[in-house]
TrEMBL record, chain A:
<dbReference type="Pfam" id="PF23609">
    <property type="entry name" value="Beta-prop_EIPR1"/>
</dbReference>
<feature type="repeat" description="WD">
    <location>
        <begin position="185"/>
        <end position="227"/>
    </location>
</feature>
<dbReference type="InterPro" id="IPR020472">
    <property type="entry name" value="WD40_PAC1"/>
</dbReference>
<dbReference type="InterPro" id="IPR044536">
    <property type="entry name" value="PEX7"/>
</dbReference>
<feature type="repeat" description="WD">
    <location>
        <begin position="99"/>
        <end position="141"/>
    </location>
</feature>
<comment type="similarity">
    <text>Belongs to the WD repeat peroxin-7 family.</text>
</comment>
<dbReference type="GO" id="GO:0015031">
    <property type="term" value="P:protein transport"/>
</dbReference>
<dbReference type="InterPro" id="IPR036322">
    <property type="entry name" value="WD40_repeat_dom_sf"/>
</dbReference>
<keyword id="KW-0653">Protein transport</keyword>
UniProtKB/TrEMBL annotation, chain B:
<feature type="region of interest" description="Disordered">
    <location>
        <begin position="1"/>
        <end position="52"/>
    </location>
</feature>
<feature type="compositionally biased region" description="Polar residues">
    <location>
        <begin position="104"/>
        <end position="128"/>
    </location>
</feature>
<comment type="subunit">
    <text>Interacts with PEX13; forming the PEX13-PEX14 docking complex. Interacts with PEX5 (via WxxxF/Y motifs).</text>
</comment>
<feature type="region of interest" description="Disordered">
    <location>
        <begin position="499"/>
        <end position="532"/>
    </location>
</feature>
<keyword id="KW-0653">Protein transport</keyword>
<protein>
    <recommendedName>
        <fullName>Peroxisomal membrane protein PEX14</fullName>
    </recommendedName>
</protein>
<feature type="compositionally biased region" description="Low complexity">
    <location>
        <begin position="1"/>
        <end position="16"/>
    </location>
</feature>
<dbReference type="InterPro" id="IPR040554">
    <property type="entry name" value="KPWE_PEX14_dom"/>
</dbReference>
<feature type="domain" description="Peroxisome membrane anchor protein Pex14p N-terminal">
    <location>
        <begin position="54"/>
        <end position="98"/>
    </location>
</feature>
Length: 314, 532
């Protein structure tokens, strides 16, 4: 299985929605505390090769691919800016855009899979901003959270609905046509670090928290979670629903493991990978190849492997 | 367009119930909210709260908001607390509405710096009376008790008291000082006068007095000299102690440095032996430290940012008792930054776009459909953002025949049934696997016109189309022929029924010319074509 060593600590990894063998990685120097950052674009094959790399002045906390353009990448940078890179242009022409409106670190970025032309940025300045690639300024700002917003995720079926996860212990559901949030989920007693929608049931959302658990909610009945997934030893950093199986969830945690869950099953934990030697901070499941997983962590390694196999096997 | 801050008066759109029939806020609702609710409630989105307001939650919130300690906190924190406790927006707004002045901060919140002066002015005429009364007792007591978190106006009140108190104290002090300085002058003046008046008669007394005074003065001088000597001695002792301390500290720091170096060396040796590359960075870092490191221009920025960074980084570590074990170099870097040092491996990078107006290139590949879109239908179209609303509006209106239909069944799931027929029939016609079909099909994702209502009464449908056939045969018939003809018609009707209900067309259609044309018209609607 391909492994790639990044010079900086890994923060996020995302598969390309256009090419099965391309992966973007967001990294930050000095664990993201203070230092430069780099965005890598890797080509998977018998070995992993680096197709492109872009340096940033500050750490990169998240990266996402455009859904409409096969060579555009958006990076969320710790200085509050969003950088857009075009892989079809030479490195000297990149980045093609720098969108700087957030007052604090940009921690999450997500591209709309339905409308395919807009994306969200989640920032530690308590706001979520909506952008399109062709506009230099944000289209909307959503300011309601009382603390850092760690992640924002578009609903896979509704072009206008998205969810945000925040350190104020709530997850909120928004509709871009409404000025404020439409639902408030007091999901956890501690900070919520990530959220994701079920691709096959657009009313189901999972939240991952510092309290080591992942909770799965149905927004039609949000007072009681559908499932509480315990098993991680420390805070859960990212959560992702599988694009191929409606009840499968992948998660990564500060306990250095990547876990796979099926929340509809009594014994929900169906897989556990302990390949990282530091915090596992980024995980993704490929949309184009069923069962293909990628993860990265503070041990500066990026793994890509098929579910059921050993990530570290050569 | 920025959304209003959460502590502004509740926005009516946020309080809109999705269902005009459901319970409105208990006070009857403003006319504004009602108007907007009716206007905007047409799509029954499931992503909105449909719960009615829970009165006990509102009561609890009111108790919370009426608490004196809560009064002093910013409105944002009060809202956030209630949200975390599970109250909906409507309930929170209702509680704020009921507790009269809960929307105003007792303190001024962050952005309203300029209004502080206004607040002082408005409150000053109220507070002028208390300070005069509290003058004497003002003293130093209020200083420690004034908590700075959010109590700015009260802080200014106390500030006024303190200022007046300080003035009074200083006045008293100067008075005392003056008295102390005036008394000796008076005394000396009295002495002079006395000596002038009683020069002859009181020579002895005068002599006695000056002598007493002289003795006193001499004693005082001696005491002063002794005190000065004592002071000098104590100062010398202090300085020697300080020097000793410095020496000790230097020794300690040198020892620490040596210990540190030894530790790092042993670490690097261990890591070299074990062959791990990760922790070898520590050795490299040690070497880097000796190199000339960065510019000072980043220092103010980094310091400001490191404060926020360290706060934010610390905030992501769990507040639960078990802290995840951070890597050793992470702790080193954190301690470096807390000391104000900058890690030396940071480069100055200019990551600004070289051409901010770089035109966007054209994509080289078409978007690929998602696995969940292929197997289950989509219900929205891919339009650019500005036109989204209009197309969505038409989509909702057209296909949502049953507003607020079943409980708990969202409207798009009902609608899905019809689109499933469209999609599956398309796939069936293409006759290939899912993925292949997905790849071959152009990424149209355009708004698919809904299928005409399913044929409920096939006979009626065909009867409507029958007139062509009937028109062709206008010969008069007697009863028997009519019965026979109607029997044939019934058989044909049955054939047609079967034919019209099958998904793919059949070649039999060609046998009935007018009907095939009718059914072809029907089939054209779903964009497929008959394949043999």
């Amino acid at each position: 299985m391909p492994v790639f060593k990044t010079p900086f600590n890994g923060y996020s990894v995302k598969f390309s929605p256009f090419y099965e063998n391309q992966v973007a990685v967001a990294t930050a120097q000095n664990f993201g505390i203070l230092g430069n950052g780099r965005v890598h674009v890797l080509q998977l094959g018998p070995t992993v090769t680096e197709r492109a790399a872009f340096d940033t002045a500050d750490g990169v906390y998240d990266v996402c691919w455009s859904e409409s353009h096969d060579s555009l990448i958006v990076a969320a940078v710790a200085d509050g800016s969003l950088k857009i890179y075009d892989l079809s242009l030479p490195a000297a022409a990149n980045p093609i855009r720098s969108l700087h409106e957030h007052a604090r670190e940009c921690h999450g970025v997500d591209f709309n899979t339905v409308r395919k032309d807009s994306f969200l940025s989640a920032s530690w300045d308590d706001t979520v901003k909506l952008w399109t690639v062709d506009r230099p300024a944000s289209v909307r700002t959503f300011k309601e959270h009382a603390y850092c917003v760690y992640a924002a995720a578009w609903n896979p079926r509704h072009a206008d609905v998205f969810a945000s996860a925040s350190g104020d212990c709530t997850a909120r559901i928004w509709d871009v046509r409404e000025p404020g949030s439409t639902m408030i989920l007091p999901a956890h007693e501690f900070e919520i670090l990530a959220c994701d929608w079920n691709k096959y049931d657009d009313c189901i959302i999972a939240t991952a928290s510092v309290d080591k658990s992942i909770k799965v909610w149905d927004v039609r009945n949000y007072r009681v979670p559908l499932a509480v997934l315990n098993g991680h030893g420390y805070a859960v950093r990212k959560v992702k629903f599988s694009p191929h199986r409606g009840s499968m969830i992948a998660s990564c945690s500060y306990d250095m493991s990547v876990c796979l869950w099926d929340y509809m099953v009594e014994d929900a934990l169906i897989g556990r990978y302990d390949h990282h030697t530091e915090f596992a901070v980024g995980v993704d499941m490929s949309v184009l190849v069923e069962g293909l997983l990628a993860s990265t962590g503070w041990d500066e390694l990026v793994y890509v492997w098929q579910h059921g196999t050993d990530p570290r096997a050569p | 367009m920025a959304t209003p801050p959460s502590d502004s008066p509740p926005s009516s759109a946020a309080g809109k119930p999705p269902n005009p029939v459901s319970v409105e806020p208990s006070n009857g609702g403003n006319p504004d909210t009602k108007v907007e609710a009716v206007k905007e409630s047409s799509p029954t989105s499931v992503f909105v709260n449909t719960e009615p307001i829970r009165e006990e939650q509102v009561q609890n919130a009111m108790k919370f908001l009426s608490h004196p300690k809560v009064r002093g906190s910013p409105v944002m924190y009060r809202r956030s607390f209630l949200e975390r406790k599970g109250l909906t927006k409507e309930e929170i707004d209702e509680a704020f509405r009921r507790v009269p002045d809960s929307m105003t901060d007792a303190s001024t919140t962050q952005p309203a710096v300029s209004s502080q002066d206004g607040q002082i002015k408005s409150s000053s005429y109220v507070q002028q009376q208390p300070p005069t009364q509290v003058l004497q007792s003002a003293a130093v007591a209020p200083v420690g008790s004034a908590s700075k978190i959010g109590m700015l106006s009260q802080f200014h009140w106390y500030h006024a008291i303190l200022a007046v108190g300080f003035l009074a104290a200083s006045g008293a002090g100067t008075a005392v000082f003056l008295k102390k300085s005036v008394v000796p002058r008076l005394k000396s003046w009295i002495r002079k006068v006395a000596s002038e008046e009683d020069e002859e008669g009181l020579i002895k007394k005068n002599d006695a007095k000056p002598s007493v005074a002289e003795e006193a003065a001499a004693a005082a001088k001696a005491a002063a000299v002794a005190a000065a000597d004592v002071a000098r001695a104590s100062q010398e002792m202090l300085t020697t102690k300080r020097e000793e301390k410095r020496c000790f500290e230097e020794l300690l720091s040198m020892l620490n440095a040596q210990v540190h170096e030894m530790k790092s060396m042993s670490n690097s040796i261990q890591k070299l032996e074990s062959g791990q590359s990760v922790n070898g960075r520590i050795a490299l870092d040690e070497q880097d430290n000796h190199r000339f490191s960065g510019t000072s221009s980043r220092q103010p920025y980094t310091n400001g940012k490191t404060d926020t960074e360290s706060r934010s980084v610390r905030s992501t570590s769990p507040p639960v008792s078990a802290e995840p074990p951070h890597p050793k170099s992470y702790m080193e870097i954190m301690s470096m930054i807390q000391r104000g040092e900058k890690p030396s491996n940071i480069r100055e990078i200019n990551d600004a776009p070289p051409n901010p107006n770089q035109p966007l290139t054209n994509p080289r590949a078409a978007p690929r459909p998602k696995p969940w879109e292929v197997s289950q239908p989509q219900n929205t179209s891919v339009n650019t953002y500005p036109s989204q609303e209009s197309s969505n509006g038409t989509t909702y209106h057209f296909q949502d025949n049953q507003p607020n239909g079943d409980d708990g069944v969202p409207w798009w799931q009902k609608k899905n049934v019809r689109i499933t027929e469209v999609e599956t029939s398309e796939e069936h016609n293409f006759g290939s696997s899912n993925m292949a079909a997905a790849n071959d099909r152009p990424p149209q994702r355009s708004w698919v016109p809904p299928q005409p209502p399913p044929v409920v009464i096939p006979e009626a449908a065909t009867a409507i189309r029958q007139p062509k056939k009937a028109a062709i045969q206008t010969e008069p018939m007697n009863d028997d022929q009519f019965l026979a003809r109607s029997g044939d018609a019934i058989d044909e009707l049955q054939k047609i029924t079967r034919f019209s209900e099958t998904a793919g067309g059949s070649v039999e259609a060609s046998s009935m010319v007018p009907d095939t044309s009718a059914t072809e018209i029907q089939r054209e609607d779903n964009g497929s074509y008959l394949e043999t």
